[in-house]
Amino acid sequence: MRVSRIQAEQNRQTVIDVASRLFREHGFDGIGLKDLMKGAGLTQGAFYKQFASKEDLAAQASKRAMESAAHRWAAATTANPGDPLGAVAAFYLSMDHREERMDGCPVAALGSDAARQGTDVKASFEAGIREHLEIIGRMIAAADGEPNSKAMAVLSTMVGALMISRVVNDPHLAQAFLDSATEQVRDAVTA
């Protein structure tokens, strides 16, 4: 059965959305095309009509995941415009976010996997990371146009703490990493 161009594009977007979530949960190599397509409600045969390769999908899914993260940051800052970085840190460095493997931060979920991928996947992450640095830079009044060291330190601290909190079993230790990072982010802004 042939599908319309509109339906084909909707199917493509669904696959990108589903892959964005499933890659964050399982890693790029932790889930096969069959299961990705099943998650999107489509057959594996439809994949190659939509994407050149799994890496092509990984790059597009990574871009979508980074866009989703930026939207979450924007929502947090809108909810607390008086302390935008505090608002981002509060949601990002929380136990709830720690548990959001499918919808949480793609850098924390896939950073080490992305480092082993091709240039297109890395480019998707790099663009998203640059956007995060720009947002943090604006929050801490860095207007020189280049990612400054303070914004880089804040982002590194947040991502590292979230990643480590996901690695440990002890919820008290996980919370301690998140709390320590929250303090460091606060201190970095006031320093």
TrEMBL record:
Task: Note the SUPFAM superfamilies from the entry.
Answer: Homeodomain-like, Tetracyclin repressor-like, C-terminal domain
Ranges for domain HTH tetR-type come to 9-69
For this UniProt record, the keywords arranged alphabetically read as follows: DNA-binding, Transcription, Transcription regulation
Matching entries from PANTHER family are given as: TRANSCRIPTIONAL REGULATORY PROTEIN
Would you tell me the protein name for this molecule?
TetR/AcrR family transcriptional regulator
Gene3D superfamilies named among the record's database cross-references? Homeodomain-like (1.10.10.60), Tetracycline Repressor, domain 2 (1.10.357.10)
Record InterPro entries: Homeodomain-like_sf, HTH_TetR, Tet_transcr_reg_TetR-rel_C_sf
Q: Which residues bind DNA?
A: 32-51
Protein's UniProt keywords contain DNA-binding? yes
